[in-house]
Structures are given as C-alpha cells and as structure tokens.
Design brief:
The complex is a heterodimer of chains A (278) and B (448). Chain A is of the alpha/beta class and 278 residues long. Chain A is built from ten helices and ten strands. The longest helix of chain A is centred in the middle third of the chain and has 14 residues. In chain B, helix 11 packs across helix 13. Chain B has a two-stranded antiparallel ribbon. In chain B, strands 2-3 form a two-stranded antiparallel ribbon. Chain B has a two-stranded antiparallel sheet with strand order 5-6. The chains are: A alpha/beta (278), B mainly alpha (448). Chains A and B meet through helix 2, helix 3 and helix 6 of A and helix 12, helix 13 and helix 16 of B.
Amino acid sequence: MNALVREPPVHVDNALLGLRPMSARQALEVHIRAERFSVFYGDVEAVREVSLVIPRRQITAIIGPSGCGKSTLLRAINRMNDLIPHCRTKGQLLLDGVDIYDPRLDVVALRRRVGMVFQKPNPFPKSVFDNVAYGPRLHGGLTRGELAEVVETSLRRAGLWDEVKDRLRMNALRLSGGQQQRLCIARALAVAPEVILMDEPTSALDPRATAHIEELLAQLRRDYTVVIVTHNMQQAARVSDFTAFLYEGRLIEHGPTARIFTAPEKTQTQDYITGRFG
Amino acid sequence: MQLSMRRLLDKAFAGTGVVSLVLLGAALLAVLAPIAWRGAGAFVFRATIEHRRLMLAMFSRGNPAEVEAAVARTRAAREPVYKMIADFEAQLAAGDPAQRHKYAKPLRELKARLRDLFGPFPGEPRPVLMRDQYGQTRWDRARVKLHRVLFREEYDYSDPTQWGRKVLRPRQEEFQGTAVEPLFAYLQAHAEEMFEPRWTLYWRFFLDESRDAHFFGGIGAEVLGTFYLALGAMLVAVPVGVAAAVYFTEYAGGHPLVGLLRTFISTLAGVPSIVFGLFGLAFFINTAGVSRSKSVLAGSLTLGLLVLPMIIRATEEALRAVPWTYKEAALSLGAGRGRVVATVLLPAALPGILTGVILALGRAAGETAPIIFTAAVSVGKPLHVWQTLSQPTPALSWNIYNLATEHAAADEIRHVQYGMVLALVLIVLLLNVAAIVLRGRLDRRLRG
C-alpha cells in the first residue's frame, strides 16, 4: 500500500498548457499535476490554490518575486516541507496520478523518485565517491562493482567525471562551488529519480559555473522531468520549456516559455519579466 | 567620539585581555609548578641501598651481585655503630644498677631512632611490617631520620607567657663520657657510606603495585583503578547520553513533558557529587544489588550518571551545529530519520561529541566523592578486567585524600601523595590534549 501506484500515462490536454491545438508539438504526458493546491505555514497561506500541470521529460521553470511561494511549491513536490512544523496542505498534488500527500504514502519512496538540488551546494563532508554513493547505499542491494559503476555513470551525467575521476577519495568540500553543485546533481541522479527539483541551483555560483549547469540541464531534459525555481529570468528563458509565473502564492500564468516571455497574457507577468517589479 | 579616544579605548580593551591572560598563565604556573616539581620527587630521587635491596627482593630488579656487594659495604660501614651500642650495653649489664637505670630510657630511644634509620639491628627477629624490615629507601628521608638520631626534639615551657618553644637537644649530651659518645660524630661523618645514595629514575612508580600501604612500591593499582572507573563511566554515559541527545534534538517535539525532562537533566548537572555518591550506594549497591559491596561497576555507574548531563549537553550542541543542509540533502535522497542520524548527523557531530566525552572522562577520572561510597578502597591490588564487576579498587583521587589525611604515616610518604597528584594531573592533561588533537583532526576531515 505504501508504494506509489503508477497510472497509465495521461496525455496533457494541450489547452491546459496554453498550447494551441494546431501546435505541431507532439502530445506530452502529465507527470505532476496540482489541483487547487495550497500550502499553509500556520495561518499564512504561502501557496494559494495553484492548479498546474508539469509534463514529463520537460523543464518547467517557476518564476516570481521573492516570497511568492515558488520554493514552497517546489518543496511540496517531494514533501521537504514536512520538516517545517505547522505546515499543512490543501487540495491535491498528484505524481503520476497518486496524491503525494496521501497519509498512506511512503515518503522515503517518494523522495527516491523525486530528487532535489538545493540553492547552496550541500555535499556531505565525505569523499566525492561517498557523496554520490550515499543514495544507492541507502537503498542497498548493490555490489561494490555495481556501486562504482553507478557512481561513475552519475558523475558522467553530471559532467563532473573527467574533473574528479582521479580524486574520488578527496573530501567533496574541497571542490569548487560549481563542481560541488554538479556533485550534488550527480548525487541526486545516482538514486535514479524521475523528477529533479532544483531550487535556484545557480544562485550561489559564478557565471561560468552557471553556464556549465545550464548546459547540463539541457542534457538532463531528455531523461528527467525537471522543475527549476529561478530568480534569473534569462535563465528561465534559456533553459526551460514551460514557465509558471507565481505572484503572492497564486499562479498568474503558465505556458510554453517562448510565449510567456514574448507574449504574456497577463499584465502582471509582463510587468515582472520586463523588470518593473520583483 | 574622538578618534584618539576610540584608539585609547581599543588599547585599553586589548590591554585588559593581555593582562588577564598573563594572570591566568601565572595562576596556572603557580598551581602546576609545585605539582610537577614535588610529583617528580616520587620517581626521580636519590635512592639508598635499602631501595635497591627492596627492589631486588620484591620486584627482582637490579643486578643481584652488585646489590650484594653494596649491601656488604654499607653493612661494614654500619658495623661500628652496632658495635658501640653492644659494647655499651655489655658495660651497663656488668656495671652499676644506678647507671643502668639512668641510661635505660635514652638508650631505648636511641635504638628506636636507629631502627627507623637503618632497619632492624643485626640478629634481631624479622619485624612483622615491611616498613620495619628495611631502612630508609630515600636519601631525603634518611637525612630527616638521621637528624632525629642526632637531636632530640623537646618543647620548652619555662616561660608561661609564651607558647612552648621547640628546642633541639643533641643526644650526644645524654651519653657524655660513655662508649656511645663517638657514635654521633661517626654517623655524621659516614652517613653516605652507610647508605650509598644514588640518583635514580624510578619510572615504574606509575605502574608498580604499592607494598605495605604505599610505604614502598608505586601507584599502579591506583592508576589502573582510575582508568577502570573513568572508562567504565564512559561506557555507561556515552551510549545513554548520545541516545538521549539524539532523541532531544531529532525526535522530541515541543511537548511540555520534554521540556520538563530537559530541566531535570540540567538539574542533574547541578547536584553535588557527594549526593551522587550516596545515591550510588543506596541505589546501585543496596537496592539494585549490582555488587555485594563497593565495586568498580557500582562506581562506574555512579560516575556515569554524574557525567551524563555533560555528555548530553555536548552531544546536543554538536548535533544542533550540524548544518541543516546536510540533513536536507540526506532526506531528499530518500534517507529515513534514523538513517539521517546514523549516516550524516552523528558523523558530522563527532568532533563535538568526542570533545564532550573526553572532558567528561577527565571529570570522571578526577571525581572523589561519588566513589568514596561506591568503589574506592585505600589499599588494594590491581584488578583484572573481570574483577571490576565485583571488586573495589584504589583510585588516584580517593587515595590522594586518603594519604594526606588518613594514612598512619602520612608524613613519611608525602612523595607518594605528590606522585599521585602528578599522575592524576598528567592523566587529565593528556586526555585534554588528546581531545584537542582529535578534534582538530576530525574537524579538518569534515572541513575538507
């Protein structure tokens, strides 16, 4: 009962994503769906009745001014908000049709499927190898060789392998900030998640490291559903396929990135992306 | 504010800091220097032939042939003393009963003082106590005893308005004109020949068992007992304390009962240690019956309880200091609560926990009151590990007090007492240094 039950793929109603019916774009599967989903911190409603669809194997960016609830929404997807006392939710948040907030749901299994990369690189004070191997070891059942293989594959995917292959035993905290963040991505990938949540993954990095991560994102998109929260509008425009604009906890507008940035329907969106506030 | 004024204030603050540091250093020196100096006297001293004889007989150390030769030489040097006394006694026995009566008491006293100095007279039956079987083993003590042979201590009460004054009266006066009179000059002139004092490093002092209630030998049983008690206390306190701290920081919510429990633990830290001792006796020995009487086990349990709040506090602080991001990272990878604690929080908190543990170890090693009722005896043999479950042990902290106040001959064996103080200070100091070094290494590993 604890395992999440997979439902047959549900195709996205193109109208929901704001795609024109005539679009040549092939039909996308729904991966995560929010239905009038709200998050409260005590009496404060941080996310207000958001309804949103996140398609599979696409990059969805959540943008909005500080305190608009975009991080809260992101963290709700793998229930990281559970750690905060007096935090509760209303409405539904579905992963493959299963309610993430179902009390019978195994949170640990959920977090295996939904990995996360944080704002500040947060490798463990362990070796590079142990960092990446942390998740696989938790879930067990791998031989030494298999583990090494998983570590290598994950590091390769995160574009870090060539830089660290000779110093896997080195303490991860001695890597540069950008390398640390890619290590964190590799660590998340090593658990083989379906979804990767990224909470402003480049805000603590310099432009060069940022560019590196953005390239990486473009590659990851083929295999993972990525949800990224960012303050950097250019970044959202560059890397994402879909963009959701949140303001004061409400979803103002959601659609293909190209359209949001070129022809937003709401004036608030227009104002925000042109830098008039936020 | 004026710039010059600000500069002045800055200097004043810096100056205060420097002065307090200097004062602290001086205070530390004032405490440690005498301990080091006097404690060193326990194992670096001028040992007499009696010491070497004793070592050979009790611990089979030293070159037997060499010791035999030295014993023969010193015996030859002492021979005239015994001869003079024997001659005088023979004279008295043959002579006037009034003379015999007059010299009976001074002679008895002189012989007693000589026995203190040299051990039993040749041909006398072997005394029961080991302390009476040998002469003075340390040259400094031999000098004191020699002085008592040469002079009689008296108090002069002739002036009723004054306290009695100590007067030293040469014994030679008592024996003026007798066959014993030259004995005193002989003793003074040939003291070194009769003892052959030699500078000795007796490092085994820290390891040897004591003989005849610390008159001879070392403090091995005390050192070992201290280690047993302190380590035993850690075996009790560390698992319980770390578990409690993990519970408090990770599992316990803000329930009022938890707050109450915390308050209790803080209170526990403020309970006087003698109360812990009584509790240990009443609970562990009399009620729970962990042992029939005092034992290392009961003492360890009591000490463990005493340091428990320290361990809990240190661990809690260390756990709280672990960056939140580590925990988040572990959780996001699908680690359960227990796994987060075991794989991320505890390893990252280890330096802090370890520091707390080693400081607690120092505290446990030095505590006296809790073990008086539960574990400590004044004299005992070093224990084997399995004996700690049922046997009491001597321990440094208790024996320092015991030797200073309750020992029958506290003044004779001050050096042993100082040696114990030095050993205890060294143990605690070493533990602290170990804590600093270990913490530094772990920190470096964690910081990368």
